[in-house]
Design a protein that fits this description.
This protein has 5 helices and 7 strands, in the order E-H-E-H-E-E-H-E-E-E-H-H. It has a single domain, classed as Maf protein, CATH 3.90.950.10. It has 201 residues and is an alpha/beta fold. Strands 1, 2, 3, 4, 5, 6 and 7 form a 7-stranded mixed beta sheet that branches. It binds inosinic acid. The site of inosinic acid has 18 residues, from strand 3 and helix 3.
């Protein structure tokens, strides 16, 4: 079986690759580049699952017969902001905003929120679509708190302001392996791997 990652985000590719490699599956893992590049997809759905399926379906249209497309739609949700930015995480500060612009927009929006009310969570919805059109979705969430000042150099996006429950360091202060143990992407990917193992048996 050949698995194709329906994303061009290098951070997601790196994290997914590492999680899949340690699972020791008998599959080839490719990026969308192997199919000519990730098709342009407008992420206009109002749910993570909707956007993930849209991305996976777009790449699935290009799959070989033994192929499986896997797309990740993810983001951070602040409870005090009615779960924003959610599906808009990648463009919270505007269409062409950088990760840093988005992070500071979140900190601005939360500025008047007390420390005890800064609960939030990362969500990752992975959609897999095979060449016959069969669709499956895997969900992972990582709950914690959104701090006031960025800390740490690892990871990407909102990692420097997110401290998982039961921890003191941000996910940007953790190694990729530590983050994968508890992250939304790690949880969703391990569900996908368990499903894939059954399917390959
Ligand atoms: P999308 O799934 O491409 O729509 O964008 C997801 C956005 O959510 C990213 O651009 C990041 O800003 C944020 N995000 C998703 N996963 C993570 C993570 O593991 N750490 C930090 N930020 C994340």
């Amino acid at each position: 079986m050949r698995l194709y990652l329906a994303t061009s985000n290098p951070h997601k590719i790196q994290e997914l690759h590492a999680l899949l490699a340690e699972a020791g599956l008998d599959i080839e893992v490719h990026t969308a580049e192997a199919l000519g590049g990730m098709p342009e997809v407008v992420e206009d759905q109002d749910s993570f699952t909707g956007n993930a399926l849209k991305k996976a379906r777009a790449l699935a249209a290009l799959l070989p017969a033994d192929g499986l497309a896997l797309a990740d739609d993810s983001g951070i949700c602040a409870v005090a902001l009615d779960h924003a930015p959610g599906v808009y995480s990648a463009r919270y500060a505007g269409e062409n905003a950088s990760d840093l612009d988005n992070l500071y927009k979140l900190l601005d929006e939360l500025d008047s929120v007390q420390d005890l009310d800064r609960a939030g969570y990362f969500a990752c919805h992975l959609a897999s679509v095979d060449a016959s059109g069969e669709e499956t979705v895997f969900v992972g969430e990582c709950h914690g708190n959104i701090i006031r000042k960025p800390r740490g150099e690892n990871g990407f996006g909102y990692d420097p302001v997110f401290v998982p429950l039961g921890h003191e360091r941000t996910t940007a202060e953790m190694s990729q392996e530590e983050k994968a143990e508890l992250s939304h992407r790690g949880i969703a990917t391990r569900k996908f791997i368990a499903w894939l193992k059954e399917r390959l048996m």
